[in-house]
Each structure stands twice: as C-alpha cells, then as structure tokens.
Amino acid sequence: MTTASEQLAAAVKAAEEANAKVEALKKQSHAEDLKLAKELIARHGFTQTDLKPELKVGRGPAKRASTPRKSTRRSKK
Questions:
Q1: Does residue 51 contact residue 40 with C-beta atoms inside 8 Å?
Q2: CA separation (Å) from 34 to 43, 49, 57, 72, 73?
Q3: Cα distance between residue 50 and residue 66, in whole Å
Q4: Is the dihedral of CA 20, 26, 27, 28 positive or negative?
Q5: What is the tens place of the pLDDT at every residue in 4-62?
C-alpha cells in the first residue's frame, strides 16, 4: 500500500510528463502547419500584398474623437 505522499509524487510526475508531451506535440503541429501554409502560398502564388489584410490583427472598433478635426469643422463666418 502506498502512502498519500507517494501517490502525490507519482501524480506530479505523470502531470509533468503529460505537459512535456503536449508541448512536444504543439511544436510538431506548428512545424507541420507552417509547412502546409508555405506549400499553399507557393501553389497559389499569393504575395505579401494578398496576405497582409488576412493576417492583420484586429484592433476593435475605431474610437471617435470628441470633436471633429479642424479640416472637417464648419468655418465660422
């Protein structure tokens, strides 16, 4: 019969091994996905200009200024 501390040590070791395996699989998957992306870019002849809008990180909705710019304000007469 094992003690609680031995069971805990075994569980911690198993968790560390599982985390290491997950990280290794993530790296492998990343490399495979990058290879696939490069193949598709080459196959279809995409350029940087074609891909730039698709890879753009969203910045959310634009914030409106509290007052309009000088160029758009009505001039006082």
A1: no
A2: 14, 19, 18, 46, 49
A3: 35
A4: positive
A5: 999 999 999 999 999 999 999 999 999 999 999 999 999 999 888 888 888 887 766 66
Q: How far is CA 43 from the centre of its chain?
A: 24
User: How many CA within 13 A on the CB side of residue 67?
Assistant: 5
Phi, psi of 64 (to 5 degrees): -90, 140
The reported pLDDT for the residue numbered 22 is 96
Q: How far apart are the C-alpha atoms of 25 and 31, rounded to whole Å?
A: 10
How far apart CA 29 and CA 23 sit, in angstroms, is: 10
Q: How far is CA 71 from CA 11, 53, 64, 74, in A?
A: 67, 29, 15, 8
Tokens 């758009």 label which residue?
72
